Amino acid sequence: MSEAFISLKDVRKVYRTRTEEFEAIQSITMDVQAGELVSIVGPSGCGKSTLLKILAGLHPHDGGDVRIGSAAEPFDPSRDIGMVFQQPLLLKWRRIRENVLLPAEILGLPKKEARERADDLLQMVGLAGFEQSYPYELSGGMQQRAAIARALVHDPKLILMDEPFGALDALTRERMNIELLRIWQESQKTILFVTHGIQEAVFLGSHVAVMTSGPARLAEHMEIDLPEDRDLAIKTDEKFGEYTRHIYKLLDLD
Amino acid sequence: MSADTWRKISIAVAVHVAFVAVWWLAVILADVPEFILPTPWLALQTLGEENYNWVRHFSITAQEIFGGYILAVVVGVTFAVLTTWSRRLDEMLTPLLVTLNMIPKVAMAPLFIVWLRFGIQTNIVITFTICFFPILLNTARGLREVEPELLDLVKSLHGNRWQVFTKIQLPGALPYVFSGMKVATVLAVAGAIVGEFIQSDGGLGWFMLITQEALNTDAMVMALMLVTLIGVLLYGSVILLERIFVVQDARVE
Ligand SMILES: Nc1ncnc2c1ncn2[C@@H]1O[C@H](COP(=O)(O)OP(=O)(O)OP(=O)(O)O)[C@@H](O)[C@H]1O
Ligand SMILES: [Mg+2]
């Protein structure tokens, strides 16, 4: 196997408040290959968001090794990260196109190219025709699509998604799952996708990282051996059921 | 404009007309003496009285209101930006500003007269001190209200503070600036008039004191209506600016 794109070795994170220390992550060791979509599941408070923040360079880690990038796929920490959160967090006073352009503006990318790319991306996420709309004119699902386009506009190599569909209704969520698979395949990005939905994790992931809390660590990093072209019918597949049952077991939910 | 907007405007106009009509009818039906409350028409007729010098008084009061108000917007927003930008400045200035805000502003008037002498400038400063705090406080609140995850997004791109400030904080605070400005409009009118009660040789407030001595209630009522008109003009311009600069969904009521 070639050199991994992300390599985590025994990563540890401690939050310090004035009075006490709190070990948010005890140990995570995991490799992610370029172009993979890795789902991360685990109980609330087990350190999923913390892990993403470490990868985004927002928090230092307190032990172990974090390496992103490889010889084949060099990584620039200032411009190779795209982030999507549970809330779309679009700027209310900007039109959709200008919202998507925010990262390009911050990085000072050439205006004309960025604008063309923003429009292409809006097309890709199914928002063609809404370039001039304001966020409040869009539904929650549409706003989240715009947020995904925003995470892609500067062509980053790594997309970090923290429960991006957590606030959507079940039906929209299913649809967004299918869309995300398509976007992932079209854009060839490496994606880390945090979710509370075990079905969602298996459906989307080429791998699923299962985390447990107390102590917060990686329980298993499993490959999902299902075809890349997935549709909702796969959820009734026997293998799909086995994977989800296995995860339920790891999380003590069976 | 949409049909709904027209509907709202016509209702607003109708209610105003009804208000004047009720006033008029009440005065006539109850046979209220003129020096207690004149009819709207009698009050309006005083505008024809040249000795009253309406234009001069109107313009003095308008200058005080608009002058003090605009000064408060400029200085209030500037202070909010400074205290939000620098932690040190915030720690130094904010406690002092909280204390200063406790001073009854009108009670400063005698001091202002000593410092600034008799005249329009003193009333501008009184108006300013009353309007300053709500604008400062609202703006500062808006500047601080940033989603932490949005900051994460900018930081993950190694964006600098200036970018956070100009692209997220400032435009995000604009609705709050307007919310403070709306509160301050009422205060500005009150500030200028009270200032004129305390010291002045012109302006609608001063004029009301003078006509009161002669019990010219019709002129007093007219002066009051003109003060209100200035207030409405001020409020109207603020609303208009808000409509131009703030996206509908972001407006703070
Ligand atoms: N800035 C911080 N300071 C101190 N403790 C923190 C901080 N951020 C997170 N924690 C703690 O670290 C632990 C892990 O938090 P984290 O947000 O990573 O969990 P999570 O797995 O994302 O949870 P959820 O699924 O609810 O989003 C939690 O117990 C939390 O209270
Ligand atoms: Mg989280």
In short:
The complex is a heterodimer of chains A (254) and B (253). Chain A contains eight helices and nine strands.
The residue fraction in helices of chain B comes out at over 70%
Which fold name corresponds to the CATH topology of chain B?
MetI-like fold
Fraction of residues in H or I helices of chain A: 25-40%
Shape of chain B: flat
Cα Rg of chain B: 22 Å
- Biggest sheet descriptor of chain B: none
> What is the β-strand count of chain B?
0
Instruction: Figure out the total of helices of chain A.
Output: 8
The SS-based structural class of chain B is mainly alpha
Strand content of chain B: under 5%
List the main descriptive attributes of the protein structure presented here.
heterodimer, A: 254 residues, alpha/beta, six-stranded mixed beta sheet, three-stranded antiparallel beta sheet, 8 helices, 33% helix, B: 253 residues, mainly alpha, MetI-like fold, 79% helix, binds adenosine-5'-triphosphate, binds magnesium ion
Describe this structure in words.
The complex is a heterodimer of chains A (254) and B (253). The relative contact order of chain A is 0.18. Chain A is an alpha/beta fold and 254 residues long. In chain A, strands 5-6-7-3-8-9 form a six-stranded mixed beta sheet, with helices on both faces. In chain A, strands 2-1-4 form a three-stranded antiparallel beta sheet, with helices on one face. Chain A has eight helices and nine strands. Chain B is an all-alpha fold and 253 residues long. Chain B has one domain: MetI-like fold. In chain B, helix 3 runs parallel beside helix 6, helix 3 runs antiparallel to helix 8 and helix 3 packs across helix 9. The radius of gyration of chain B is 22 Å and the shape is flat. The relative contact order of chain B is 0.13. The mean pLDDT of chain B is 93. Classes of the chains: A alpha/beta (254), B mainly alpha (253). At the A-B interface, helix 3 of A face helix 7 and helix 8 of B. The site of adenosine-5'-triphosphate has 11 residues of chain A, from strand 2 and helix 1.
